[in-house]
């Protein structure tokens, strides 16, 4: 195949993948959780790379690297002349400018560290805001929180670069939190392995809820009508909860074997901070197959 044809195919693949949402990664999942929200996370060691290519180790971790499903392209990484806005992480070593984006980013991922610890962006995306080293890595390791934008699209990212691998977690801006700082705080806690603290839990055999540590239940309702949230026979409830000066609606479910799950959603993200608005939003999200996580 000629170099010209290879470049044409690479460009076509890149254009086709650029706007797609990130697929749920393959591999082993570890439910880390957090009292506010579970998020996509990513982490990978060098040995795991050689063994399985891509191992997810979070609530949905995604490894940055080329694979059979990755879209090839020849766009340069950060630090080389380009019309695409890019950024270089402070304190990281320069990397080879010839590394392909498909070797750094997976389809649907817009930003990530290359193997040398430099931030790489897809063509057309730019960094609107960054928080330096939220994971407090020591050089040559690095981390950064990013707000990246392209037109009306805006995403929140936490990037991590370590000697044994690294990773990225991201969400569309404002999906589960009203402020980037809140989202980044929870992502850092998840990466550091903080144990989850539920805002509510079931008080007994019925649907009555009790508050978690630091939380206050403002009101609660049994058996919310949200198709797809729970299996037939599960015990379910929803509560309006206040914690750290913020208000959340929390869906709770308990299966027949006693396993429980709670899903908080910040009330500020709703058009109105009412139960009706929250349930309507939850029904739409479950009907779409996305859910509230």
From TrEMBL:
Source organism (scientific name): Nocardioides simplex
UniProtKB keywords: Membrane, Transmembrane, Transmembrane helix
Keyword Membrane attributed: yes
Extent of Low complexity compositional bias: 72-93
Stretch list, region Disordered: 72-98
Protein's name in the database: Uncharacterized protein
Keyword Membrane appears in the UniProt entry: yes
Residue stretches spanning the membrane: 42-64
């Amino acid at each position: 195949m000629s170099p010209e044809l290879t470049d044409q195919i690479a460009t076509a693949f890149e254009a086709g993948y650029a706007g797609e949402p990130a697929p749920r990664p393959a591999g082993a999942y570890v439910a880390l959780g957090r009292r506010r929200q579970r998020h996509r996370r990513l982490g990978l060691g060098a040995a795991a790379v050689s063994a399985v290519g891509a191992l997810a180790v979070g609530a949905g971790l995604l490894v940055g690297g080329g694979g059979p499903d990755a879209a090839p392209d020849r766009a340069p990484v950060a630090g080389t002349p380009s019309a695409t806005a890019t950024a270089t992480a402070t304190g990281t070593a320069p990397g080879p400018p010839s590394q392909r984006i498909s070797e750094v980013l997976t389809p649907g991922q817009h930003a990530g560290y290359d193997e040398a610890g430099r931030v790489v962006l897809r063509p057309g995306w730019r960094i609107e805001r960054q928080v330096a080293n939220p994971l407090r890595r020591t050089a040559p390791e690095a981390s950064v929180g990013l707000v990246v934008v392209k037109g009306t699209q805006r995403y929140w990212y936490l990037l991590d670069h370590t000697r044994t691998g690294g990773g990225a977690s991201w969400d569309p801006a404002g999906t589960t939190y009203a402020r980037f700082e809140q989202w980044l705080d929870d992502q850092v806690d998840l990466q550091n392995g903080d144990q989850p603290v539920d805002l509510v839990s079931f008080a007994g055999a019925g649907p009555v809820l009790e508050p978690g540590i630091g939380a206050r239940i403002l009101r609660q309702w049994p058996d919310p009508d949200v198709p797809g949230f729970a299996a037939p026979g599960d015990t379910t409830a929803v509560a309006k909860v206040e914690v750290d000066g913020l208000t959340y609606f929390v869906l709770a479910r308990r299966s027949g074997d006693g396993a429980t799950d709670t899903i908080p959603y910040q009330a500020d993200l709703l058009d109105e901070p009412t139960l009706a608005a929250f349930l309507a939003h939850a029904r739409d999200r479950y009907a779409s197959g996305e859910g509230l996580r």
